[in-house]
Amino acid sequence: MNTTPTPYPIGTPGTPWGDAERAEWLSRQTRQRSYESEVLSVIERLRSRFDVEAYGHLAYGADRYSLMAIRSRDWRDDRPIVLVTGGVHGYETSGVHGALQFVEQRAADYTDRINLLVAPCVSPWAYERIHRWNANAVDPNRSFRDDGQAEEAAALMRLVAPIRDQAQLHIDLHETTDTDESEFRPALAARDGKPFEPGGIPDGFYLVDDRESPQPEFQQAVIEAVEQVTHIAPADDKGELFGTPVAARGVIEYPIQQMGLCTNLTRAPYRTTTEVYPDSPRATTEQCNAAQVAAVCAAIDYALAHR
């Protein structure tokens, strides 16, 4: 039986993309939802309770986007700083709406104890096209370093720079979806001229810790809270999640600085990346958003208790 994956429809197998292939890829991307009506409208509702600011602007052809951040109004130097980011990968919907739902429904529970900064949709072009990359076929979540190539990442780095050394917590809200395996990983292999090696998608929620500075008790506190909302992804028969060995139940570790991941933004002692699985038959859209909110609340609770 032939199990060789079908070649990606753009480019020549084994040859990295050039300008022509990137242009062909871009021509296939279509706007499928509205950043303005689904994200900016929610942020506007929050202006009465929070400070809202544009921290950057994107221009891709005729498309223009304002990058928006939400900040607690009574910012005080004696309070710990909490950073929440979502939509670094625009297609990961609960990352965006989980962040907004947290601000709308739960942030008031904490704003007298923390300084809160939220960037709910880091990649609006990709949000509208339900894609992982930006319009230049660059993954923003590999660009959080000085030589990063994504303007989305660079703008967020500029926003966070003043608090980089003071932050107590950074939680970055993501999803792992079936399209990671059917579209985004094959596209990545094709773009880079590498062979695509099929894998499996974990069924359930998991976290990504920093391999160089792990915080296992913190990660487990988040896992235990989220488990009240949705199921935790079990390890596969190799003891792995998404091709990475499990460090603890529901937790894997990546070298976040080496990879240029978003949680490399600060030197916060508590950092984690959530991974919700929206394609599970055991999870609804509401559960996915609620899982993100539960993760943020548990992370803040832990950080406040362990200052």
UniProtKB/TrEMBL annotation:
Keywords, in A-Z order: Hydrolase, Metal-binding, Zinc
Organism whose genome encodes this protein: Marinobacter halodurans
Protein family per UniProt: Belongs to the peptidase M14 family.
Cofactor: Zn(2+)
PROSITE patterns, A to Z: PEPTIDASE_M14 (PS52035)
InterPro entries found in the cross-reference section: AstE_AspA_cat, Peptidase_M14
Domain Peptidase M14: 31-307
Entry protein name: DUF2817 domain-containing protein
CDD domains found in the cross-reference section: M14_REP34-like
